[in-house]
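Hi there. Long-time user, first ticket. I'm pasting a complex I've been working with (about 658 residues overall). I'd like to know whether the download I got is complete or cut off, because the file seemed smaller than I expected. Thanks.
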Amino acid sequence: MQQDFQPVNQPNPFEKIVEFVDERVGLKTIQAKMLNEPIPGGSRWAYAFGSVLLFIFILQVVTGILLMFYYVPSTDHAYDSTQYIIHEVDYGWFLLSYHFWGSSAMVVMVFAHMSQVFLWGAYKKPRELIWLVGLALFGIVMGFGFTGYLLPWDQRAYWATVVGVEIMDKTPIVGDFMARFLKGGPTPGQMTLSRFFVIHVMVLPAALAGLAGLHIFLFRKAGPAGPFRGTPEEIKAKTDYFFPRQIWKDIVAMASVFLIICSLAFIEPVVLLQQATPDPGDYHPEPEWYFLFLFQLLRLKMFGGEFGQFLGAIAIPGAFMAFLAALPFIDTNPERNLFKRPIALVGWTVIMVFILIFTVSAIINRDFLH
Amino acid sequence: MSRIKLGLLIFWPTFWTGFPIKMVFCLLLLAAHMPPWKGAGLFLLLLVSIPIDIWALGLCARTVFIDRLKVDSQPGIGMGLWLRWAVFSAIALPLMKIIVSATTGVAKSVTSSIVHAIKDGIYNIPVAEQISLELVMWGSVSTGVLILCLLGWLYGLGWLTQSFVNNAKSLDGTEEERANFWDSLRIPADQPLLLTAFTGAGVVLVFVFWALLPSTTPHPHEEYEFISKGLKEVKVEPQQVLKEAEKVLAKAELVVKKLEEEKGGESKDSKAEKAKEPAAKEAEPDKK
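Hi, the file is complete. Here it is re-exported in full:
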């Protein structure tokens, strides 16, 4: 008797492994949920900022851990160990420079992400909590920059911290406590370095991971806001799925940012100044570039004197942050179209121009100091 | 659709689509000590950019045609558009640079004279205020001229694209149907396969990058003394080491002998002196 043999597709070893993991983890369900998520109104380049931020943070963690293998957080060894990383450790110079520029990229991306959410009106009901958690994340990213800046323990690091802590000291009620807590003594020393190090590598990463998880959870719960123009029918008709168009944009954005950071690490690598001393000598203290606009603002005559410094360094930035936190509860108009919200559009433009002018002014001002 | 919008809609995604690929090449050039902004590095970058731009322009233009204009272009749109855009930009961009630089130069000098006239005659403006004031004055003029130039350039790109739109065949169907049609033409349906291919390409590039990357910093600190350079490799020859050790021991033996002799001499002298001391002491009371 003749038998018909039907060819049977036997799974290969790789497919068997995937099947094994899928049965236990639910890989295919996760993949379907992640990649087939609908995007109302279609994919946009502007939606890539959040994914890029997560990507930069992961790489900051990886490079930070690698740097910690060599860095010694003591005033006797911080400078030498950083110099050792730059000069002696294989590829150490690149890892440190990548970490340095990665922190700047995080600030830029947080700023871009917040601007996009603001301009799209995506902070409005029912997304108020996403906005508030996002603001806290913005504060954490700034905290990373501030605490990480001291760690190399060179003149730039030391004096930027001195200026930063002095500004913090001007805050009413909590300022004195905060400044004393961070410094741990009358002048920056071992206690300051230890505290900044612990905050930088333990407290802030844990806080950021937790809040970023909450941010993403709230975002998934509320769903994407979609474009600010078009009727619900038009937006529904244009709905895309995460794969392939949005994931392509995300990959391109992540690759671009990664490559820009790598190129900056190459072209402008970290070079330390002299080891930190309580005497500034010829060095003119200056904060990180993203605080330069505020630093330049404090040089204006109207912000001179004790009260003026308090106004420029604490009262105005504090009031602005409080306004941003209250924004979803003040602006209850459901209108999201940017071109029908002239105050938002003009306000955002004015702030951007202000930051740009004062940052460039601070750079020009360097020529007047020598 | 206006020509400026058409130009922008195609140029913007084209730039971002080609950008990471060019950046990969830039990074590999940097790792190989060839700056991509001058000399051979720049030449290689421009050479590699040509096929990348042709591909990206074709891809993005066709996406805009199908998604936004409801038409499908003739084959070879990437090459056709690139030739026109490249020739136009080769003339327009240097011209824009000349116009913006000249305007900025004039605006800076006029601003400086106005501010100095105010400082000399009316009010002594402090340095920080002067910097920001001058920046706002010449910056506004330069930005205005730059924006006008950019709009003119985008209008030109849109105008050059218009004939391709006119010659394209119209498409039927809803927006979603058109998007699916275009996606099915260029994207594999197998999601994990595509993502694995991307990851694989990334891994290969990472290996190439690390292979080219210098392990020590190309910008060493002036005052840094390399620990690894201080350690010189010493070749050890046991016979030579033993001979050297014997010499050292022989020298040491001589030194010890000499010291013992000196000590022996000193002790004899001191004994004789000590013997004299009691006799002297005995003579003392008589003096009293």
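A couple of notes from our side: Chain B touches chain A through 46 residues (CB under 8 Å). The radius of gyration of chain B is 42 Å.
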